[in-house]
Each structure stands twice: as C-alpha cells, then as structure tokens.
Amino acid sequence: MKKLALAAMLSVAAIFPAAAQEVVDWMHIASIPEEVALMEAAVAEYEAANPDVKINMQFLENEAFKAKLTTLLQSDAAPDIFYSWGGGVLTEQAAAGVLRPVEDLVDPAVAEALGSGGMSAFTRDGHIYGLPQQVSEVVLWYNKALFEQAGVDPASLETWDGFLAAIQTFKDAGITPLAVGAKDKWPAHFWWSKLVVRLAGQDAFDAARKGENGGFAAEPFVKAGEMFLQLAALEPFQEGFLAASYGDASGYFGDGKAAMHLMGDWDYGAMKDNSANKEGIPDDQLGILPFPTIEGGAGDPTDTLGGINGWLFHKNASDAAVKFMEWYTSAEVGSRFGNAGFFIPIAAGAADGMTNPFKVQIAQSINNAHWHAIFFDQELGPQVGGVVNDISAELAGNALSAEEAAELVEEAAADIR
Amino acid sequence: MTTIASSAALSAPRRARRYMDRKSLVPLLLFIPPALILFVVLVVLPMIDAASFSFFDWTGYGPMTDFVGFENYDDVLSHRHFGTAVRNSLLVIAVSLLVQLPLAMWVSLALVEKRWSVNVIRTLFFLPYMLAEIAAGLIWKFVYDGNYGIIPTVGDAIGVEMPFVLGDKFWVMPAIMLVIVWKYFGFHMMIYIAGLQSIPSEVIEAARLDGVKKWQIVRHIKLPMIWGSIVISVFFSIIGALQLFDLVIPLSNGGPNNSSHTIVTFLYQFGILRMKLGFGGAVSVMLFIACVVITVIYRRLLFSREVD
Q: Virtual CA dihedral for A289, A295, A297, A301, nearest 10 degrees?
C-alpha cells in the first residue's frame, strides 16, 4: 500500500512539470544532417536550462516550405517560430496580421547585438516581427584545379569581357564553365540579379521599384538581360541545366565537373553534402571570385547580393518563443554554426571566431558593402520575384529577348504598385 | 407468381411513392447524411470558396477586400504560358485515349485467361498504378537524368548521344507521357479484364463453333459486351488527364522554361506559389467548368447508349 502511494506520488510529480511546460513549435528548413544535429543540441541545452519550455522542431524542405507557408500560417497548425528571408513576403505577412509584433518584448541589448541593418530587415512600419540570425552572400565559387587545367588565370575574370573570354577558354578545353540549377529557377536569378546590381546599382533599383524612369523596363535592366544573353549564347552551363535542381547543380560542382558556380555561401556545406562522395571539392582547391565588374555600370564595386535571414514570430507565439529566439540568435549560439561553416551569424562578435577562410572572406565583404542587396525574388515579393525567376531561367536558356524580359518584370511590378 | 405480376404492374408514380413510405425513409435518413455532409464540406464548400477567390485580388493573407470582377479571368487568358498549359493537357488527353487505352485493351485481351503465369504478368502491369505519383515521378526523374540515368547509359552502350530529355523543350512532353502511359495503363487493363471476364464463356464458345474468326469475336462480341467498361475508362482518362499534377512536379516542375505545364501545375505555379490566389481561383473555375461540360456531354453521348 505504501509502495502504491509512493508510486502515485511519483507519477503525479512526473506529470506536473510536463503539464506546466510551454510548447514552442519551431519550423526550420535546414537539411544538412550535421547542421540539424547542432540545432538539436542547442534545443536540448535550452530545454535543460529552462525545464518549463519544450521546443518542438518541425522541418519542411525549402520548396515545400515556401509553398505551404501561406496556408500554414492561417491554420491552427501554424508554427510559433518560422524561418524567413524577410523581403516582400514578410511585408505581406505583416500587413495581413499573421505575425506578432515583439518590439515591446525584445531586450534592447539583443537588438543592439544583432545590429540595426539586421533588425531593420525584420521591421515593418516600426514593428519588429522577428530576429535576424544569418547573413549570406552570393559569390562565384570556383574550382582551382579546373582553372589550372584549362590554363585560366582567375585574375583575368575581373572584368566582364575577361570573364566571357575565360568561359570560351573552358569551352575550348572541354570543361563545363558554369553549373546552374535552372529547374528551381532561383539559382538562375542570381545571374540576372548580380548583373542588375552591377549595372543599375542601389539608386536605380530603388527608383525602378517605385516605377520611376520606366521602372524595371529602364535601360540598365534591359542591359542586364542583354549581357545575360551574351553569356547564355556561349552555352556555358552544364548539359541539361534546365532540368537540374539546385541540389543537382550543387552536386555537379561539388563533383568537380564544372569550373564555377554562382551560389550563396551556404553552398560551401551543401556542395559537399550534394557531391557523390559527400566530401566535395577540398578546401585548397576551392576559391571565391568577385563577380566581374562592368564598365559603365552604376553599381558600387563593393555591392553584394545576398540575404539577411532569420526567424519570425506567428501571432500566437508566446513570450517563451521570443525568449528562446533571443538566446538562439545570440553570438554564443550563432558562433557554433559560424565556426562549423554552416552560415555567417549576424550577431556582433559571433563571426569573430570563424576559422573557415571562405566564410571569413564573405563576412568581410558583406561588412564592407556599400549596398547589401537582398535576394531579388524575396525582396520584390512572390509576385514580382516569381517573374524575375521565370525570366532568368528563360534568359539562361536563350529563350527570351532582353526587352521582353524587362517588360515582363515591369508588368508584374506595375501590377502591385 | 403473384408477386412478380404485382411488381410488374406497379406504375411509375406508384414506384416513386414507395420511396416515401416509412420503411425506406429510415435507411434514407440514416445513410445519406454522412456522405452528403462529407461531400458538402470537402467538395462543395471549397469549390464555392475557390470560385469566390477568383473575383478578388488576394495574396492569401488576411481578408479578401479588393474586388476586381473578371480581371483575374482576363489575366489567365492573356497569360503567356496558359496556352501552353492547355495545349499540354489536351495532348495528354489525346495520348491517353489513342495510345494508353488501346494498349490496355490489347494487353487485357491477351491476359484475360485465369492462369498463374498470366496473373503474375497482370500484377506486374498493375504495380505502377499502385505506386504513389510522387514516387513514380522521382523514379523516372532518375531514369531520365542525363548524367546518371538509364537513358544516357543505354545511349552510351549503343553509341548514340542521348538528349537530357527533361531539360529539352521537345522531349519533355513525350517523356512525361511515357510515364503516364506506363503508370495508368495497368489500371485501365484491370477494368477491361473485369469486363471481359464477365462475358459468359458460352457466348464465345458458340461463336467459335460457328467458325467466327478470333478478330471478329473481339470486334463483334467482346468489345460490344464490355462497352460499359470502355465508357468508364475513357471517362477516367479524360478527367485524370485534365487533373494531372503530381507526376509532372517531380519530373519537370513544368519546365524547361514553363514548357511542360499542365493546367493544374500552371494553377499551382502561377497562382499559389506566386501568392495570387485570385488568379489561381480563376484557373480552377475554368478547369471545373471544362470538367462539368465534358461530363455532361459525355453522359449524353455515351452513358445513355450503355443503358440501351
């Protein structure tokens, strides 16, 4: 009898903390097993320190995440915290009221550590809707061994003409110059975006957004299409690139089959994960090239293209969710991912301990950037961004004229202005 | 004897009245509501919803406020890829009817006997149908893959340079249609086999004794006697082709350059993914109307003949 009473007491004791626990649903899109392991370890650590909080990790694959999010956020199954690229999608979500403004809750010290640039990327009309965690940049990754094999000097790619000449040299040597996953379209839109960053620059881009000077049909945007077509005419991409997903292209580059891949810094890990032997290109064979400069372009040579990604709070998110994210985006946690080379943490000081030379180089270039342009397909929102992705894949396949491409983007942009 | 006579004597109005008597009213009230409620909640209400989206400019977030009349319909019809999507859907219908169904009929005529070896082959042909569409699409994506797939391997073996079929505007639709035929002909084969097995063997026996040739038996006895099965399978083919979606997404995702969209992948890509739910609603209403029109015409033309 005594035993029974003890058992009953124990079970009550076991139930109570569980019942008082606050569950936070956290939806992420990380798919590299080592990175997910780091996230799980962080969750375990946080739960151990805060026994009243239970973090429930949920995963959706990148493309599925984008497709499902709209419905998900308006359903009962909405996650409390979810991944975000900011940009036009965030604007829509904020306007629709599916997010929780947290400016009264966020510790000013946390906001300061994350930096004003990062915080403003997650702020709309004075309301803070999320916390930034990572910065990323699209760079021209290259395979040193293939450059040597073809006898191409990386320094010769500093200008657009030199770049095109190098493409031709690779073609002549029987080496695929560029890998691109045009089935997913957004990898192709990096080419168009980088050309626009170089040719139009920040001022012309902002003006085009507002519809000034002919909007996106203006001269620099047509020129970007023309130069993209100039590149496409050399047939620089791997065979079947229009059917290749991002993962396919990343693996193709990781397997050492293409000389260059214009991709975000995350490809450092993804390229290894997608390669056949899971090791990818060894560090000493891998390099980063600056995107070729274009004579007469209005952009600043230091301009970068990339993202400021982070986490948004659903309108039903609890205070505990915000507290967890304050900790998770901190320099202490961020540096673990930075040191492991998964992403560049935005929190002040978090990137200081990074030893990966590529990530250090990228972090510096973002810091020095005159304009860190956010991925156009995110920045411009799904309606215009989707068209940018469309025309980019079509330009890569030489299936559209530069004027038509610019017109289509302008048409979509005018639609939502 | 008397019961037969009395039931034969029942006139039409009296038969109708019989449904109203107490005996049949109870099962009616008991069995109709569950199905009716499910149908209304899961089919009718979403349909009305989608139709109402189509008159608004709506991103999917928040309430619909921006009424735009028929503008979405106008946008759909003038969209530069809508024509391609409609053409592809019609192409899929054509291939389903002209290649898939004759193939299914031919195979079913060969496999109608009840023997274990025949059963094994039948099961093999039916297996693709049981596979999930996404899984089938992924399998075939690997088959077609221009670097590691079976197609280039075969090409290398016979010394022919094979195209990257899914990255090629010309080859992508034939490639998708091959998968469709592979996946669904087993289903139609089963419908036909079921029909063929219901033909009394005496009829065929008698014809054979009368010296009717094999082909004539098929043409004049078997096909007319399974007319109902054919009508059903043609109907499934057309509606299935119009709703084709989940095979195309993993195979080509509508690419290269939006050349392999069907009406539904077009709806998904340019309506849902672009957060233009009004646009998507307009596409779905048009598709729905097309399906209804086809169904009505089809019923008039063919189901009525079945009754005769």
A: 40
pLDDT at B6 over 50: no
Indicate the domain borders of chain A: 23-135+305-372, 137-304+374-416
Q: Which residue of A has its CA nearest to B277?
A: A70
Would you call B68 an interface residue with chain A, using a CB distance cutoff of 8 Å?
A: no
Q: How far is CA B261 from the centre of its chain?
A: 17
**Max Cα–Cα distance, chain A, nearest Å:** 90
A240 neighbourhood in chain B, CB within 8 Å: 145-147, 164, 166-168
pTM, 2 dp: 0.83
* Closest A-chain CA to B71: A415
From CA B284, how far away is CA B267, in angstroms rounded?
Answer: 7
> Structure tokens of A246?
């991002």
Query: Does B253 contact chain A (CB < 8 Å)?
Result: yes
Tell me, yes or no, if B140 comes closer than 8 A to chain A by beta carbon: no
Angle B237-B241-B244 (CA atoms, 0-180°, nearest 5)? 135
One CATH from 3.40.190.10, 2.60.40.1120, 3.90.1720.10, 3.40.980.10 for A137-304+374-416: 3.40.190.10
Pick from B62, B146, B166: CB nearest A96:
B62
Per-residue pLDDT tens digits for A90-140? 998 998 899 999 999 999 999 999 988 889 899 999 999 999 999 999 999
pLDDT of residue B161: 81
Contact at CB, A183 and B256, closer than 8 angstroms? yes
**What distance in Å separates the CA atoms of residue B179 and residue B165, rounded to the nearest whole number?**
13
Q: Which CATH code is given to the segment(s) A23-135+305-372?
A: 3.40.190.10
Burial annotation B237-267 (CB, 10 A radius, 16+ → b, else e)? bbeebbebebbbbbbbbbbbbbbbbbbbbbb
CB A393 within 8 A of CB A242: yes
| Dist CA B184 CA B200 (whole Å) | 27
Taking the C-alpha atoms of residue B271 and residue B281, their distance in angstroms, rounded to an integer, is 8
What CATH number is given to the structural domain containing B250? 1.10.3720.10
The SS3 of residue A153 is: coil
Predicted pLDDT of residue A374: 92
Q: Do B61 and A244 touch (CB under 8 A)?
A: no
Query: Which chain A residues touch B274 with a CB distance below 8 Å?
Result: 382-383, 386
Q: Do A241 and B167 touch (CB under 8 A)?
A: yes
Q: How far apart are CA B125 and CA B122, in angstroms?
A: 5
